[in-house]
Structures are given as structure tokens and as C-alpha cells.
Q: What sequence folds into this?
């Protein structure tokens, strides 16, 4: 049975007929990691794995929600003090609250939802969930909130209801995603451009280390604070620097003695990464995948040694990719576990994936998972 049919069946049992179906997507990011909350560039795309929900207004002041994946039901009101206990329900609650805070109308509804984004893999299952509901509520209650603001509703949900001070990349990709294209987004100006992405002769494969870091959200917030600290120090000399991505590398060197070494290293990574996104986009337009791949390896080095969001398992996978002549490889997403993203020539794919599974399993005692992804559409109504 398809996911849509399973949702339909459960919805019918719990709530009866009717409802409309909405969906949104997880994301990959080719390059541009931890740059979004620094006002830099990112280069994500929505993928063919996401969240789907059937939803119907129920004429009450309550949301009645069922998660097929957790096999759990939750009912909650729409006022601030009604915040539910279940983590998954808090995302939906947050989206309702953030929509209301922006003057949108939100009334009670019934919903059953499910997803196929692997959890904890760094593919943004949470953004897919937020975007599905932000988009759906906007349609169902005729709110006319624009797509940028829908993405911000998801982001604010993370900030205010889930404790992660994330940037805008995941929710943006999930809302604006388009089949076959990656999107270069300037996170300061919110200007964006679609880049058709179809590297002939190459495959994109994700390798999930299946490692999940318990303290990932506090470590993430700490990285963000380091960047803000570095930007504030630079701003004293260069008042036009609004965010770290505005800073030149030499300006960072000027404040090296004034800030903790850790903050310096974090900022060094970010300033390099913002430039790498632009270099990758140029290389893509020339069809120069070797340069794209080399930049991915450089990003991994920075994420591992300067930003310190990698782990042994991910470093192992990237090293192994290099040895198997993979064009580019790096940890993807927030880090602290999750996946590597790999750009690999068709003819090297089998050897690489076989070797990775074999050697990783031998070293770490559990098998990694492989995901082939297709760049797909983001938030939408499903007919
Ligand atoms: C997480 C966050 C994003 C972004 C990435 C790192 O996915 O949600 O906003 O910061 O990490 O690039």
C-alpha cells in the first residue's frame, strides 16, 4: 500500500471522510554548510523523501493528530499554554502558533501524517514536517502568507518550540524545492536562483553513518554563538559587517587575539565556506565536476577540523571515499552524525558503495545505510 493510501485508511477510521492531502520534502545540500545563520550562501535541493498529511478542519478549537510512524495520537488546543508533550506534535503545534502570530487564521483540524525521511540522518525530516503543515494551513484557511514567510514559520517553530536556533536553509529548500534543480540562496538578502542539476556520468549517493548525537542541538547553538561573537568583534573595526558572511578573511585575522581560539576557527571555516558555494556554482555552469568535488572535500576538512561537527564514523567514510576515487565527499547538514554526501562517477559507484559498507561495518560493528536521492518538488497539495 502506498503511503497516501495508508494515511487515507487511518484517517477514514479515526475521522471519517474528506480532507485534503499535502506534502513536503526533506533536503540535501551540495555545499554551504553552517553558512545560513551567518547570512551566507547555501545550495540545497528538495528530495524525493518527505512528509505527507491528510488534513480536514474540524470546526473545533482543537487539533487531533495521528502520527502513523510513531503509531501515536495527540490532541491539543491552539493557545500558547496548550503545548503538547510529544516531540512530533510540538512541530505541528509550533507551526499553528507561528502562523497565528503572523495574523494567519488557524482553527482546529484533524490530521493523519506519515513520512519516509530517515530520522536523524541530516535530511531535515523536521523541516519537511513543518513545511507540510505551514503550507497546508495556509491553503486550508486562505491566509495568503507568502512562501518566504511560510519557510520562516518553520524556522521559528524550531527556535521557539524545539530549542534549535537553526538557519533558514532547510525550510527554504522544503518550501521552494523544484524537481531537477538545486537552489543557491543568499541567506542575507533571500535572493535565490535555481540551477538545473543533472551531472551526466555521476551519481549522488548519501551514506548514513546511523550515528545520532544526543547533544546535537546544544552543540549547534554553541557554534552559532561563536560565529556571532566573531562577527561582533570584527564589526568594531568594520561597522558594515552585519553578519559573519560580510567579513573578509583578513578582518578576522585582525581580531584573532581578542576572541577565543575556538571562535576564530569557527569563523575561519564559515568565511571559506561562503566562497566555496560561489566557486561550486561557477564550476557547475562549466560542467566542471572535478572542482565541485574538490570543494566538497575542502568543506569536509573545515567541518571536521575547524567547525568540529564531524565524528570518527563520518571522517572514516570521507577518507574511504577519497581512496575509492570518489569525486567529492563530505558530511552533510548540521553534523554530529548523520550522512555523508558523495558525488561519484557511475563506473566507480558499485566499488565505492560495496567497499564502504564492508569496511564501515567491520570497523564500527553496524552497517551504514545508502540512499540514492532524486531532486524533487517541495511543498505542494497532492491531488
Ligand atoms: C541544520 C540547520 C540548518 C543549517 C544546517 C547546517 O540542518 O537546520 O539551518 O544550519 O544545519 O548547514
A:
Amino acid at each position: 500500500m502506498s503511503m497516501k493510501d495508508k494515511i487515507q485508511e487511518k484517517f477514514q477510521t479515526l475521522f471519517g471522510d474528506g480532507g485534503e492531502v499535502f506534502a513536503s520534502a526533506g533536503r540535501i545540500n551540495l555545499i554551504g554548510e553552517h553558512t545560513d545563520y551567518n547570512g551566507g550562501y547555501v545550495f540545497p535541493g528538495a528530495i524525493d523523501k518527505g512528509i505527507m498529511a491528510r488534513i480536514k478542519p474540524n470546526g473545533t478549537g482543537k487539533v487531533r493528530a495521528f502520527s502513523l510512524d510513531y503509531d501515536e495520537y495527540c490532541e491539543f488546543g491552539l493557545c500558547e499554554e496548550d503545548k503538547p508533550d510529544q516531540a512530533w506534535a510540538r512541530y505541528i503545534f509550533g507551526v499553528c502558533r507561528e502562523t497565528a502570530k503572523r495574523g494567519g487564521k488557524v482553527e482546529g483540524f484533524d490530521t493523519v501524517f506519515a513520512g519516509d525521511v530517515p530520522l536523524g540522518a541530516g535530511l531535515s525530516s523536521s523541516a519537511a514536517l513543518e513545511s507540510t503543515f505551514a503550507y497546508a494551513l495556509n491553503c486550508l484557511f486562505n491566509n495568503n502568507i507568502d512562501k518566504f514567510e511560510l519557510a520562516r514559520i518553520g524556522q521559528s517553530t524550531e527556535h521557539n518550540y524545539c530549542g534549535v536556533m537553526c538557519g533558514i536553509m532547510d525550510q527554504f529548500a522544503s518550501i521552494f524545492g523544484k524537481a531537477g534543480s538545486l537552489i543557491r540562496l543568499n541567506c542575507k538578502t533571500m535572493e535565490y536562483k535555481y540551477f538545473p542539476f543533472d551531472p551526466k556520468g555521476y551519481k549522488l549517493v548519501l551514506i548514513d553513518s546511523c550515528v545520532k548525537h544526543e547533544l546535537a542541538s546544544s552543540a549547534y547553538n554553541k557554534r552559532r554563538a561563536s560565529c556571532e561573537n566573531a562577527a561582533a568583534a570584527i564589526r568594531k573595526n568594520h561597522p558594515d559587517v552585519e553578519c559573519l558572511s560580510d567579513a573578509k578573511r583578513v578582518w578576522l585575522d585582525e581580531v584573532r587575539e581578542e576572541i577565543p581560539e575556538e571562535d576564530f576557527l569557527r569563523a575561519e571555516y564559515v568565511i571559506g565556506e561562503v566562497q566555496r558555494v560561489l566557486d561550486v556554482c561557477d564550476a557547475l555552469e562549466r560542467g566542471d565536476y572535478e572542482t565541485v568535488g574538490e570543494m566538497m572535500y575542502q568543506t569536509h576538512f573545515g567541518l571536521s577540523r575547524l567547525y568540529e561537527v564531524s565524528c570518527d564514523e563520518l571522517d572514516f567514510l570521507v577518507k574511504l571515499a577519497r581512496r575509492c576515487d570518489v569525486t567529492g565527499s563530505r558530511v552533510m547538514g548540521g553534523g554530529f552524525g548523520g550522512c555523508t554526501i558523495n558525488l561519484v562517477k557511475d563506473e566507480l559507484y558499485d566499488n565505492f558503495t560495496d567497499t564502504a559498507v564492508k569496511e564501515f561495518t567491520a570497523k564500527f560493528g553496524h552497517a551504514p545505510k545508502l540512499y540514492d536521492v532524486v531532486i524533487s518538488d517541495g511543498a505542494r497539495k497532492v491531488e
Q: What stands out?
A: The mean pLDDT is 97. The pocket of alpha-D-galactopyranose is lined by residues 33-34, 36-37, 124, 166-167, 169-170, 333-334 (CB under 6 Å). The domain at 3-195+377-382 is CATH 3.30.230.10 (Ribosomal Protein S5; domain 2). The radius of gyration is 21 Å.
